Predict the 3D structure of the following.
Amino acid sequence: MRWGLGWRFSHLRSAGGENEIDLIADLPEGGVIAFEVKLTEAISARESRRLTTLRDRLGDAFRAGIVVHPGTIAHRIDERIAAVPLGTLV
């Protein structure tokens, strides 16, 4: 699916189901921004492990990983991966 910025949106699920990313935005210049949505407010490296795996596989093409959550505090989890409250996005 393409929207106004030329981004293409998809999701990822490996054949065995062990790796799943909720939303992937493919950017026109070849980069990727990946999103995971979690229902817990306590976001840690455990909740972002699939984003970390994707980052490590894509290298420099991985621009950012964002874990969207219902809490109120945004914070950095790891290199190019952050937890962001849903309320800041809407």
Remarks:
- The CA atoms of residues 24 and 34 lie 4 Å apart.
- The mean pLDDT is 91.
- The helical segments are 49-58.
